[in-house]
Design goal:
Strand content of chain A: 5-15%
Shape of chain A: globular
Order of helices and strands of chain A: HEEEHEHEHEHEHEHEHHEH
Number of domains of chain A: 1
Oligomer: homotetramer
CATH class of chain A: Alpha Beta
CATH architecture of chain A: Alpha-Beta Barrel
Largest sheet of chain A: 8 strands, parallel, barrel
Number of strands of chain A: 10
Chain lengths: 282, 282, 282, 282
């Protein structure tokens, strides 16, 4: 009978990302920004780069609130081939303009070898999205850049598989990895995904890598973003990535989960006492 | 094609528990304790009542830290018929002794009509466990008591089904309901369940009932209880229920998820600044 | 690190229902009907007993097609307290009339100790529904009757938990248990549940108990019932339980998943060659 | 309140793969083999190409049983970077030798643009694996080849997302798509995945594309492959893909789920009566 219950397969020996072999916390630097240190890093910006105006307006607001990393997708993995697929190279240039104008760091997604080359050239941090978490060919490629990587958890990835995806990147030469919990797929339909905040203490125990939380994609609804952002920080996350849009109702993707600039400012203010309560700063 | 996608079935018109029909937050009183008010309520104690000494020792510690509600199971729903099933009526008397000796409120589980009668007589609050969340016969019975009810979310219950279970209780005459998120079943195996903290803001939007969090059953491992307790409070929960055992390694059930008395005291101290950070008290 | 991965908790030593201790298949008899023998048993009838006419009409049709077990709920566990809850004792009498008139065996659900007493008196086989699979108090009670039990798998029960629920019944004195796979809860929303047909060979390997399949509740849509019924038989199931309604569009519950009498006859005809193909009979 | 429940997002208007716009079944040809016609297509072979001997031996056996399509991975997406990653181009040459020697069609996986170019050159059908089902860059690339594509369902993909992935391929110019159900991720741990056979009638209703079943990856255990293969055919699948290895215990990947050559022959024999029972042939 015992053989029946033992499908769990091969042991999962992550090494480079394991806390066993590297007991102290890793600090990953993106310019002057440090992930994994005492400061909570907030990344903010629109889901997709839609226009120069939209990005510059969001970026200015984000900058004002003290945020130093801008997000925005130029290459968008969309469920439907008929949905807006991103501005591509043009989008990267718009992000670059915001960066130069406002002194922001930029993180944006690469979806294949071709876009990776451009993103690595124009951005400060490369995002690997949930749908590509086990695109091993892409993981190997980002492993051979030196760029900091933001590795989102797959839609239904186990924590072991996620750390193994990080191990791919590290094993191919790039130890600069920040993990991002963005909700997992469950039977519950009220929220877009189920934000698995317990992944934070589990990952902290297993690995030395920093971990941040994306409450926007996880909940799928702007009004639930703020409480889950505060909860993420209280659970021990090293940062947050938040969708902000100057006019959510006109967003080309994910409008319902984007905060307005006003709500985003309120959120940042409410985060301050929570970060202090757990002995960290914003 | 549209008919294929519309299996979602009947509308779910909860009324009595809906915020639409009762916009202000409900406050549920158990003695002098108020669930749903500005104070975060902490319930603590062992998973199961095992002996007089174990309960009195846990209760004294819990009392010292300022906790005013004691938990402990006299009737234990166990997966195996060969596991310890609880002390039953004897367990209720032990809990009652702790209550009288220390001035604590007691919450304990009822598993059928017979145990409900005893629990309603001896305890201050009746717990309906996850496995009985859709035991509608039991829900109707607790609906006809006047006792405050702690209604745990089912192992794989949707938020709608959970609120409908509360509606059963309310519709049968008892509006004194406190909800308890205790983790849902997912594919992730590191944690015993996946604590769904986003259920807190969702429930707060849909219902006026108080909601608390059980990080012990959710994570299944004592070292993850404290961060998830802090996260629950930051997410807006009205309280916590925590497993504490004087000697977790000898516990007859769920030892791995129980805090020692020392760790529990540390947790309570760490909760104070978090509750203040979100404008509440402990 | 290893301690982190070992939450799977206590071993699960089912004994009485295990094939290790009882290598040959069990045959469970309900009158002249044998579950677990060479013949595939088909149970059919309406979801709920709604009226004398509806039951007698369904029963007559079912009888004509050679079916010898009638299903129909007199006590209905419904998600909402405002939905039709079943005719209760009156419903049992209607089922009994169909039984006497047509020589059918009757299986119907018990939801608590009180209804169990009546069901055990009036029906030939007692169904324990998915929502009560871990209602251990009820399992103990059916364990002390001698009635054959139809034990449905819980909405999100593991195979181990399901066999442990059967072990409860057996350990309390009743070995007459037939298991019923009725779909599990997953993220997929097209079907009401996800029919886990691989549970059949797994259960057959672990246990000597017969197992049948409920494609009606599993798929939630009448047009998918027939292919899944055929697949269940091909996977090795010992029987099927099918919802049939003289007029599905007027059913008080689960109309969308009920077959008309005409479609049911077609299904039974299509099952014959499949049962022969795997060396069994209908 | 209604806005809260409506996160289901944008409508999903697949067009090219929808049965609404193409009511009759599509037949996809790979050489003389037809997917979607009256004949059930069986694809068989090892999980990974390990050596010339292993492939030629498997291929010869497979050929003998009447199978005309050989599977075998030259590029292997593996959870760990330290696991065997496939023989790459060398593996493709071995598959080609088997093809030429035995007159077999070959299907093998492409994992990125580079391997796609080689696979499209050397093989008859290109597999897109579960982990790449939403690698939209790769989907677009296979859309611009004319090769038949075997599109596996993602680990936790909904049926809608899966059909949308097919729509990507079709919208980029390639209508030659065969879908493959290979099990979805659920909480159940006895089986490697949960084979969702109800996806077959659902997909048949929504789309005109052929669909086959992979019981090897789904169950993860060789002894459950045969019953689930028979069930897949009974549910209406157009074919099967089965792992076969001359010596499963020495396989470099997925040995526990591979059939020996003897067991495979037995399986094929047992499939014949089932296919006839539902009016098809092998």
């Amino acid at each position: 009978m015992s053989s029946v219950g033992q499908l769990s397969s091969e042991p999962r020996p992550y090494k480079l990302v394991s806390r066993v072999f590297h007991p102290e916390d890793s600090i990953i630097r993106v310019g002057a920004v440090e992930f994994g240190g005492p400061r909570i890093v907030v990344i903010a910006g629109p889901c997709a780069v839609e226009s120069r105006t939209q990005v510059l307006q969001s970026a200015a607001c984000v900058r004002e609130t003290g945020v130093s990393v801008l997000r925005g997708g130029a290459y968008k993995p969309r469920t439907s081939p008929y949905s807006f697929q991103g501005l591509g190279r043009e989008g990267l240039k718009i992000l670059d303009e915001a960066r130069q104008q406002l002194g922001l760091m930029v993180v944006t997604e690469a979806v294949d070898h071709e876009s990776l080359e451009l993103v690595a050239e124009w951005a400060d941090m490369v995002q690997i999205g949930a749908r590509n978490m086990q695109n091993f060919s892409l993981l190997k490629a980002v492993g051979s850049t030196k760029k900091p990587i933001l590795l989102k958890r797959g839609l239904a990835a186990t924590i072991d598989e996620w750390l193994m995806a990080a191990e791919y990147i590290a094993a191919h030469g790039n130890p600069n990895i920040v993990l991002c919990e963005r909700g997992i797929r469950t039977y519950e339909g009220k929220t877009r995904n189920t934000l698995d905040l317990s992944a934070i203490p589990v990952v902290k125990q297993l690995s030395h890598l920093p971990i941040i939380v994306d409450p926007s994609h996880a909940t799928g609804h702007w009004s639930w973003v703020a409480p889950m952002a505060r909860a993420g920080v209280a659970a021990g996350a090293d940062g947050l990535i938040i969708e902000v849009h100057p006019n959510p109702q006109e967003a080309l993707s994910d409008g319902s989960q984007s905060l307005t600039l006003v709500h985003f400012r309120e959120l940042v203010e409410s985060l301050r006492p929570v970060t202090h309560a757990i002995g960290r700063q914003l």
